[in-house]
């Protein structure tokens, strides 16, 4: 006699997201799950280095797995920091992880809601600011005196029937469209007039970077890529090796004569590419001042790689630099006072002594954008040499807005094989300088456009204050210790 089999439980026959039409949806309301639905992957994917959490989440209880993950991630953190850090760090990773088919439907609707098991305080800012979401229903975290307890408060983790109950409380009328990707989404999907399932396809196509709803100009955090469990493990294993390697690379750059640094960097795995023809050193005998190298700003190491490319140390003026960075720097650094008259006199004096490097953006930008160039430099000399700086990192960013800037060079050199490209552009003709009657703003804008065209970047009107207000909540004056208007991005 054959052994009796348990009755099969087949999921409801929801049509797939590909079957949903988008015309005439302007007045419709859409409610979508987040992980695996609105996003191709999981929002918390970088936080799963332990196989035990994966086992708990997938084979025991999705709700229990999320509770453990929330507790281990947020216990003791300031609630305000959870929101601000998430707003600064997560957009880069997840705006480029938008599920193309879900976004096609989601963006066509006039009213948008996300229903997610992720902590609301973590995802709400990102969803509303970058994806135009109107309402976010997520898991609520308990707090005490402004700090997260790590415990989930009622109604609990929003999975299964809890999602359906949250939807009932938020909407008096049934939403027009419900979109989910797993069995625990079915209860809330049944409450919608139409419901569509996102097939579990690992090869799901994300929205292309150039078609994102809002450009990502500023973001923070040290990690270059969103981590998978394997990548997280490899990163942890690499950190002690990378730190030792970074110390060797920094020592080579600081202790060796500058003509040898280029070769030492190559021997230590740092790829330095030099393009264009730099001008010769100034000749004091004929009374000419030094060249002012006007550089785009990617990391605080820009002047050092400029010096490496030239084979001689070039002093640099900076807006802010940690004491540690000043100590280990192989070149002279001069801190600007932010007083226009004082800074102008200082730069003129330095130019009388020889060449000088300046980054008129005033701060770094990781993405393919150039911030507004300060026009002060154009008033001080006509010996202007634009320099397009670009770099590549595979593991760690060498810049930060919220962290300690003293670690910036270490993080850059901790990458397995970082790369820098220094492109010398033609020296500005005299007829394009202030000496021939051009305004300093015209000169600064021309150099910005020239460098942007060389790098295939986009010009913006954003400033240092815009960046630090968005990422750190200050004006950038304090080294150690946010919404952007898309209209500030302009074509070159």
Automatic annotation (TrEMBL):
The chain crosses the membrane at residues 55-77, 230-252. InterPro entries: HAD-like_sf (IPR036412), HAD_RAM2/GPAT1-8 (IPR056462), HAD_sf (IPR023214), Plipid/glycerol_acylTrfase (IPR002123). The keyword Metal-binding does not apply. GO terms for biological process: cutin biosynthetic process; response to symbiotic fungus. One of its GO terms (molecular function) is phosphatase activity. Its main location: membrane. It is found in: Membrane. Pathway: Lipid metabolism; glycerolipid metabolism; Glycerolipid metabolism. Involved in the production of cutin monomers. Esterifies acyl-group from acyl-ACP to the sn-2 position of glycerol-3-phosphate, a step in cutin biosynthesis. Required for colonization of the root by mycorrhizal fungi, and appropriate hyphopodia and arbuscule formation. Cutin monomers act as plant signals that promote colonization by arbuscular mycorrhizal fungi. This signaling function has been recruited by pathogenic oomycetes to facilitate appressoria formation and their own invasion. This is Glycerol-3-phosphate acyltransferase RAM2.
